[in-house]
Write a structure and sequence with these properties.
two-stranded antiparallel sheet; Rossmann fold; 8 strands; alpha/beta; six-stranded mixed β-sheet
Amino acid sequence: MDHRTRLKELLLERSVRLGDFTLASGARSSYYVDARRTTMSAEGQSLVGRLGYHAIRDAGLTPTHVGGLTMGADPVSYAIAHFSFLEGEPLDAFSVRKKAKDHGTGQRIEGGLPTDARVILIEDTVTSGGSALQALDAVRDHGPEILAVLTVVDREEGGRERIEAAGIPLVALFAGSELKGAAGR
């Protein structure tokens, strides 16, 4: 079995639920994806790191760093960073806090992101694109060049369009319709 097929199986087994749900955006949905249940598992880490890294390279992108809004982006970013090191082409990870700390150095971005970095913003699931856009604003304010947003799941509910309207391409490992359709079988 190839790695993408196995990650899809794992997402269906651990992360996709059918029913009646209210999403973070406030919208109602007949399915829910809690990708963290997959991306925080040992097997999920291995798969998402490999597939995320290859999706970045296949898109012709050459980042120095990967990261996004904590906490959905964290396990994906760290998995990609780990896999990139094993491939001999290290990408460092970073996390964007929802708001700056009110103690210590008061940073909003953690992980030593330099201002001259080339960044792929990471999301576990994109619905409206709000979390990616929050991270985008914080990273842009910091200075690095943002090359793209990579998400594990694009729910295909307007997030791609909002992100691309901000001038940033979206790369998705899975479409929500693909997972929803497979979960309904």
